[in-house]
Amino acid sequence: MPEISRFFGIIITMNYSEHPPPHFHVRYGSYKALVNIETLSLFAGQLPPRVTGMVVEWAALHQDEL
């Protein structure tokens, strides 16, 4: 799966031909989650609150590109 960003130990990946809804994958240590691109909300998995905040902030800045 193509990596589209990496910061503070957070790895963001996205497969362009995956199932709906449009989303990206987040890995942070042993944590994994899926984030809906339209709502910027986690819909599967778990992340620490601080990491969730950073991911949502990153996604908001790059939402049009995603």
User: Can you give the mean pLDDT?
Assistant: 94
Instruction: Trace the largest sheet across and list its strands.
Output: 1-2-3-4-5
Structural class: alpha+beta
Helix/strand order, N-terminal first: EEEEEH
Strand content: 35-45%
| Basic shape | globular
| Rg estimate, integer Å | 11 Å
Tell me about this structure:
By secondary structure, the protein is an alpha+beta fold. The chain has one domain. The chain is built from one helix and five strands. The chain has one helix at residues 49-62, and strands spanning 3-7, 10-13, 23-28, 31-36, 42-45. The longest helix has 14 residues, at 49-62. The model has no long low-confidence stretch (mean pLDDT 94).
